[in-house]
Design brief:
2 domains; 18 strands; Cyclophilin; mainly beta; nine-stranded antiparallel beta sheet
Length: 314
């Protein structure tokens, strides 16, 4: 049975797409993981409305949409902070919103961060490709025909599963970090760090970089002090996970993001730890970025602590 139209896009914003936690297990076929740029915020929004973490939601980038709801809905917005209005009344993000039929959720001025997530109880329906509804823009697969939302698009919402429950944030969101203008993230030195002279590694770890204007969901091109390579060797292509920092011969680092290619042939000087990937997703062109080296033991502990904090949002 087809679900009735639940949402109508009155204004799509700059770049609004359907995203979930990604298309895992197909990298060996050359298919990108894709999914939310800030998976933590997607999970938080879904938990606030009682969805499973992996449920499809809307990802908003830099300038938000106006969405009309055609039936009563339970909604939460998480991630970047915008001025939000429900019709003419201002409402808060990271809380459960009860929206009546005919009401509009309006995104106003952005205050901090770069990407917000709109979760609707039951999840937004979309085209599934290889087990995920994530929109992969380069191949035009998943979500809404593999493209950003447009004015007039009509979206449907699924039914809540029996095991879904309404959640309550309790004290669990007080730790949230929203980057304002930039972020410092922790990295583990990469598998080809020995390709770089010591002074180049010190430059990378001590200087500030900026997200370039040509950055997108595939990767951030970083502007700042060049990272000089020790020689002109070429390497065989290797797997490239989100958060990898690759350095081409130009010395301008490239930070792999959600839609990144599955393999690459540039040496990797570092990889951002899993616990800090959500901070990368909240950066936009012109924001600064600094790197702080840690080891694998510290990285694992940071992820455990983050998941313990997430457990409070149930």
């Amino acid at each position: 049975m087809t679900s009735p139209v639940s949402l109508t896009v009155e204004d799509p914003g700059l770049l609004t797409t359907l995203q979930d936690l990604g298309r895992w297990g197909a990298q060996h076929h050359g298919v990108s993981v894709s999914g939310a740029m800030d998976r933590l915020s997607l999970r938080l929004a879904n938990r606030l409305v009682g969805n499973r973490d992996e449920t499809t939601a809307l990802e908003v980038t830099l300038a938000g949409p106006t969405i009309r709801f055609n039936r009563e809905s339970q909604v939460a917005v998480s991630g970047a902070e915008f001025i939000l209005q429900l019709d003419k009344y201002e409402v808060s993000s990271e809380t459960l919103l009860s929206i009546g039929s005919g009401q509009c959720l309006i995104f106003g001025r952005r205050l901090s961060g770069a990407r917000a997530y709109i979760a609707v109880a039951g999840g937004v329906e979309g085209e599934s490709f290889m087990g995920s509804r994530s929109t992969h823009l380069p191949t035009q697969k998943g979500g809404m025909a593999g493209r950003p939302l447009r004015r007039g698009d009509e979206l449907r919402v699924g039914s809540l599963r029996n095991e879904s429950i309404r959640s309550h944030p309790g004290p669990g969101l007080r730790w949230r970090r929203r980057p304002t203008g930039g972020a410092k993230v922790r990295v583990i030195l990469g598998p080809q760090v020995d390709w770089f002279p010591r002074d180049s590694v010190e430059t990378f770890c001590s200087k500030r970089y900026w997200v370039g204007i040509s950055s997108d969901r595939m990767g951030y091109r970083l502007e700042g002090p060049p990272v000089r390579r020790g020689d002109a060797r070429e390497m065989l292509s290797q797997a490239v996970p989100m958060g990898s920092v690759q350095v081409p011969q130009s010395g301008e680092p490239i930070l792999a993001m959600a839609d990144c290619q599955t393999t690459g042939g540039y040496p990797k000087i570092a990889t951002v730890i899993s616990a800090d990937l959500h901070l990368l997703g909240q950066l936009g062109p012109g924001d600064w970025l600094e790197f702080d080296v840690c080891d694998r033991v510290f990285a694992r502990q940071a992820l455990v602590e983050l998941e313990e904090l997430m457990a409070a949002v149930q």
